[in-house]
Design a protein that fits this description.
By secondary structure, this protein is α+β, with helices and mostly antiparallel strands. It has helices at about 10-20, 30-35, 85-100, 120-125, 145-155, 185-190, 195-205, 220-230, 240-250, 295-310, 335-340, 360-370, and strands at about 5-10, 40-50, 50-65, 70-75, 105-110, 115-120, 140, 160, 175-180, 210, 255-265, 265-275, 280-290, 315-320, 345-350, 355. The chain has two domains: about 5-110 and about 350-370, Aminopeptidase (3-Layer(aba) Sandwich); about 115-145 and about 160-350, Gcn5-related N-acetyltransferase (GNAT) (Aminopeptidase, 3-Layer(aba) Sandwich), CATH 3.40.630.30. The termini are far apart. Belongs to the FemABX family.
Length: about 375
């Protein structure tokens, strides 16, 4: 570093201006996300070299019961130059600032991709009876500098969270993405497997119509989402969460969160949300009805989101988390098999990392979290 970095709180406008200056930042690192996650206390922090803002993060503080002490969580962040100089110059002043705010520990998810596997490699691996995990498959691309960061974090006292199966308690370590840069719609469609192309064509032939909705359409989305939760055995978020997400994200940028609705002969058969920040677009929530699954509304809606992401200038369409299993007998394998049909790639991030600041409180917290399962 040419000069010492200082970390301090920054205003929401300062943070948002910095986000807008970047090619992309995770939507979990936008100031608006603090409003969405209102059960946490949010703080925007900035890294300064002199008077110049050179890095930023949204910190979410979760309070310990009965104590004014907090876990400071930075999901898919911070947004700093991860390969610029000594990592300690970035992380040491951050830790000092968060400790001054009452943090007993820090959890973060560096937005750094370590390895990539293309769809051809993944399909071959799924067909190989010996291979059961992506980690067992030689990657098509490995970033040595990113791998070095893992060792640097350990030397600084950070602990990598267990991501067995691909998920930690927070954000997924493995994601599936479709590269869009310098590709036409025809290129992307040609990269999909025959089943995806056939289902997209079938949906169009059967008259599935995909439109974008407004806030009053969220209850219709939520009804299908709740049905999906029962079918797929997960706990749904309340409608109020999506209304808060709509208000917060779209107050920041008018088209940051877009709602999609797929209808067939007047019936809502699928509905999704897409978030875009800069050049990165994310498929964030999806739902479909059990009835009329044969009209392939889910494929039609995904294709429309991909096309809209391209039209908006996105270079990545992110289908979010997958587990690393490629064992056909594993119940999670269907997720990667569905997504690999798009012709995209699996990417592995550095994962989530903890830094204990008060070891006794941190140990108590992690023991409590383990007891919750």
């Amino acid at each position: 570093m040419t000069s010492t970095l200082a970390v301090r709180s920054i205003s929401t406008p300062e943070h948002l201006d910095f986000v807008r200056s970047r090619s992309s930042v995770s939507f979990l690192q936008t100031p608006a996300w603090a409003t969405v996650k209102n059960e946490w206390r949010g703080e925007s922090i900035g890294w300064f070299r002199g008077e110049t803002l050179v890095g930023a993060a949204l910190v979410l503080y979760r309070q310990l019961p009965k104590l004014q002490r907090y876990l400071a969580y930075i999901p898919e962040g911070p947004d700093i130059d991860w390969h610029g100089g000594d990592l300690a110059d970035w992380l040491t002043p951050m830790a000092a600032h968060l400790k001054s705010q009452g943090a007993f520990g820090i959890r973060m998810g560096p937005p750094v991709v370590v390895r990539r596997w293309n769809s051809t490699t993944i399909k071959a691996a799924i067909a190989d009876p010996v291979l059961t995990s992506l980690s067992d498959v030689p990657a098509d691309v490995s970033d040595d500098a990113a791998l070095d960061l893992r060792q640097s974090l350990k030397k600084l006292g950070w602990k990598e969270l267990d991501a067995s199966g691909g998920f930690t308690a927070g954000q997924p370590k493995f994601n599936f993405q479709i590269p869009l840069a310098d590709r036409s719609e025809d290129d992307v469609l040609a990269g999909m497997n025959q089943l995806w192309r056939r289902n997209i064509k079938k949906a169009a032939k059967l008259g599935v119509e995909v439109t974008t909705g407004t806030k009053p359409d969220l209850p219709a989305f939520h009804e299908v989402y709740a049905e999906t939760a029962v079918r797929d055995h997960f706990t749904p978020r309340p409608l109020s969460y999506f209304e808060r997400m709509w208000d917060a994200l779209n107050a920041e940028e008018s088209d940051r969160l877009v709602l999609y609705l797929a209808h067939h002969e007047g019936d809502l058969v699928a509905s999704t949300t897409m978030v875009r920040v800069g050049l990165h677009a994310w498929y964030s929530y999806g739902a479909s009805t059990t009835a009329k699954r044969e009209v392939r509304g889910s494929n039609a809606i995904q294709w429309q989101m991909i096309r809209d992401a391209m039209a908006a200038g996105a270079t990545i369409y992110d289908m979010r988390g997958i587990t690393e299993t490629i064992d056909p007998d594993d119940s999670h394998a269907g997720l990667i098999q569905f997504k690999v049909g798009t012709g995209g790639e699996a990417v592995e991030y550095l994962g989530e990392w903890d830094l204990p600041l008060n070891r006794a409180l941190y140990l108590g917290f992690t023991t409590y979290m383990r007891s919750r399962g």
